[in-house]
Specification:
This protein is mainly α. Helices cover about 80% and strands about 0% of the residues. The longest helix is centred in the middle third of the chain and has 30 residues.
């Protein structure tokens, strides 16, 4: 295993910076983007189509973004993701019809693509470099808490976003993206691979003409790994399916709560409460180290399905409780699954394999998004 060549590398500083970018990257006035689009007059079917465009882009870019992170560096891909988020926000600022809204979706998707896998891989290999990878589940739990609290605060400001208007809200979001980029550039690139492989990769990426063959090689090696490790492939699929149901439920609850009679200013706190469910789930799963995975999976799946059933009551407080339970279950299973997968992945393919997991999620979301838009519009 090679050591990072940068002698100034400090694990505590690295993890702290990743936490900071996690906070800034998820804080936004536009977190309740579904309700913002609904307030602009777009139908749930149109919103579902926009979500589908997001996941079609993810479908195309997810795996290549992970391979590029493994080849060129995780820090560079994180920074590129920040840039994509800024561009997506600016496109939304100038959007006057659905087609510009649709145009912004690929940029936001690519921002997600370049961030997913890169951050986790950089964190795990940073810990592995210092023989501290046993702390990854706690790190992942903390990042999940940061994500839920930050997005919860973002949705808490849904009323403010509607008051300010979508243009001002997305402009503020773009400024937050610029601040996130500033801290991302402070990260230190880390490699945990054989010296021979590292030298070979450096030689190959010098020539742009060899990039395609390098991407193909990475993809083949990752597919071979998954074929030989069917357990990892199954974990990816099951985790993605459960997560997709929860995400779609929370997305469309933004609109369904308004239909149930909740006011714009109460909507934010309600969405924030639902996000806090993820914080509870992230805390509980760290304390459940000795509970077998299949038991956790069954409990969490039932929790997400319970959230869907409670949404159908059309009673505001019961719907919010359902969203809370679903978030709690989703974060718990995601953290435990991610930790199990990280322990299985080889370092030199880590970002690529995480991206394949996200790719699986995008396939499922692409199929379920329009169906969910129709489902939630008639029930």
């Amino acid at each position: 295993m090679s050591k990072n060549s940068n002698k100034s590398f400090n694990l505590v500083r690295q993890i702290r910076t990743l936490y900071i970018t996690g906070v800034l990257g998820n804080l936004s006035l536009t977190g309740a983007w579904v309700v913002i689009l609904a307030a602009r007059g777009f139908s749930l079917v149109e919103i579902g189509f926009a979500e589908t465009l997001f996941h079609i882009t993810s479908l195309i870019c997810e795996i290549p973004s992970g391979m590029l992170a493994d080849i060129y560096g995780r820090k560079k891909m994180l920074a590129l993701g920040n840039v994509m988020a800024i561009v997506g926000d600016l496109v939304m600022v100038f959007s006057t019809d659905f087609w510009l809204v649709a145009l912004s979706m690929p940029f936001h998707a690519m921002a997600y693509n370049f961030a997913s896998g890169s951050g986790e891989a950089l964190a795990y290999d940073s810990m592995k470099l210092e023989n501290a990878e046993a702390g990854y589940e706690r790190y992942n739990s903390n990042q999940s808490i940061i994500y839920r609290v930050a997005t919860g605060v973002s949705t808490l400001m849904a009323g403010l976003a509607l008051y300010l208007g979508y243009r001002t809200s997305y402009l503020i979001s773009a400024l937050m993206g610029s601040l996130t980029l500033f801290f991302t550039l402070k990260l230190v690139e880390v490699r945990c691979s054989d010296e021979s492989s590292e030298v070979e990769n450096k030689e190959k990426i010098v020539s742009i003409r060899k990039l395609l063959s390098e991407l193909i090689r990475f993809f083949k090696e990752s597919v071979v790994f998954l074929v030989r490790n069917s357990k990892a492939a199954k974990l990816m699929f099951l985790n993605s399916f459960v997560g997709a149901i929860d995400i779609l439920l929370l997305f469309f609850l933004q609109s369904k709560l308004r239909d149930a009679g909740i006011s714009n200013w109460v909507l934010g706190p309600a969405l924030f409460i639902m996000e806090l469910g993820g914080v509870v789930g992230a805390k509980l799963i760290v304390k459940a180290k000795n509970v077998k995975y299949y038991k956790i999976f069954i409990i969490c799946t039932l929790g997400v399905l319970a959230g869907v059933l409670l949404e159908h009551t059309s009673v505001v407080w019961i719907m919010v409780v359902g969203g809370f339970i679903s978030s709690m279950a989703d974060d718990a299973i995601e953290i435990r699954t991610s930790t199990k997968l990280q322990d299985m992945f080889p370092s030199e393919q880590r970002a690529t394999l995480i991206s394949i997991s996200s790719f699986t999620f995008s396939v499922i979301m692409m199929i379920l998004s329009p169906l969910a838009g129709y489902f939630f519009s008639i029930w």
